[in-house]
Design goal:
Elements: H1 2-15, H2 20-27, H3 31-39, H4 46-55, H5 60-65, E1 73-83, E2 87-97, E3 101-105, H6 112-119, E4 127-132, H7 136-139, E5 140-143, H8 155-165, H9 171-180, H10 196-207, E6 214-218, H11 226-238, E7 242-246, H12 250-256, E8 259-264, E9 267-273, H13 274-279, H14 284-293
Parallel strand pairs: 3-7, 3-8, 5-6, 6-7
Antiparallel strand pairs: 1-2, 1-4, 8-9
Helix pairs in contact: 2-3
InterPro entries: AAA+_ATPase, ABC_transporter-like_ATP-bd, ABC_transporter-like_CS, ABC_transporter_ATP-binding, Cro/C1-type_HTH, Lambda_DNA-bd_dom_sf, P-loop_NTPase
Organism: Limosilactobacillus ingluviei
GO molecular function: ATP binding; ATP hydrolysis activity; DNA binding
Length: about 300
Amino acid sequence: MHNAFAHQLLKLRTEQQLSQTDIANLLFVSRQAVSKWENGDTEPNLDNLIALARILNVNLENLITGSSNPNSLLLTLSHVSKSFSKPVLKDVNLTVHSHERIALLGANGAGKTTLIQIIIGLINPDKGTVKFDLDPKKSLNIMPQENVLIPDITVLEQIKLVSLINKVYNEENIQNLLAKFSLIDQSNQLIQKLSGGQKRRLSLLISSLRPAKLSILDEPTVGMDLDSIDFFWKLLNSRNESTIVVTHDFNQIDRYFSRVLLLKDGKIFRDVSTKSIHNHNQSIAQWYRINNEEG
Ligand SMILES: Nc1ncnc2c1ncn2[C@@H]1O[C@H](COP(=O)(O)OP(=O)(O)OP(=O)(O)O)[C@@H](O)[C@H]1O
C-alpha cells in the first residue's frame, strides 16, 4: 500500500491546505511521523489511518489505494482569489462531493459571503475557477444573505414565478409549503410588507421548491424566531442533498454538519470532519475558538 497511500496522503493534505503539523496535531503524533508516512518510509497504524480518513474526509479505501471517491464530485474551486480594497480571498481551493453537509465558518469579514457569491456567480474572482459537476440550472439551490425577493409582488406571486421559471409549478405543493413555512396568512401580502424573519422563511421556501444536488445557504437563520430556526434545521436534516451553509449558529453545527471549513486570512485555514473534532472531545464551538485564535 506504501506508494499509493503516501501519494494520496500528500495529495489530499495539500488539496485541503493542511500542513504536516496540522495533521500531526490532530492525530497527536509528531510532524516527523507524518513526514515519514508521506515519504513512504513508514505507515500509520490502523487507528491513525481511520482518523486520517476522517480528517481528510475520504473513505479508507480511497486513502489507502487512491481509488476514486464513491461520492460524486459536485464542485471544485481552484486557486480562487479576490481583492476589494485589500485581499479577501487568497488562493482558495475546495472540492465538494455528494452527501456532504458543510458549515462554512469564519469571523466577521473573513470573506464567507464573498466566497459564496463567487461560487454562485454573483461576483467574479480576480483569479481562479469555479467548476460545477452538475447542471446549476437544475441541481443547484441558493439562498444568498441579501434578499433576492421582488418587493412589489405578493408572496404567492413570487413563489409561482420561481416555480414556473424552474418548471416545478404544482399548486398543491405550493399550498403545502406555505403551511409548512407558516406563511399561509401572508400569501397575498406584498413582499415589502413582510418582516425580516418572514422574508427569510420565504427565501427558504423558495430554495425548497425543487430537489437539488447542492444547496448553498448564507446565514439562513438570521432574523428568524426560535420556532422557525428549529424548523429550518430539521428541514435541512430531512434533505438528502449536499449543503454549504454559512452560519454562526454553533449550537446546531455539532448536530447537523459532517464537515467544517474555517476561513481565515483569506484561506481555508481548516477543513475537517465534524467527527474528527468530536473524537477529540471538542464541540465545534470549542474547536472554532481555538483554531480561529491560532496565528
Ligand atoms: N462589494 C464590496 N466592496 C468592497 N469591499 C467588500 C465588498 N464585499 C465585501 N467586501 C469586504 O470584504 C471583506 C469580506 O466580506 P464578507 O462579507 O465576505 O465577509 P463575511 O465573512 O461574510 O462576514 P460576516 O460574517 O460579517 O457576514 C470585508 O472586509 C468586506 O468589507
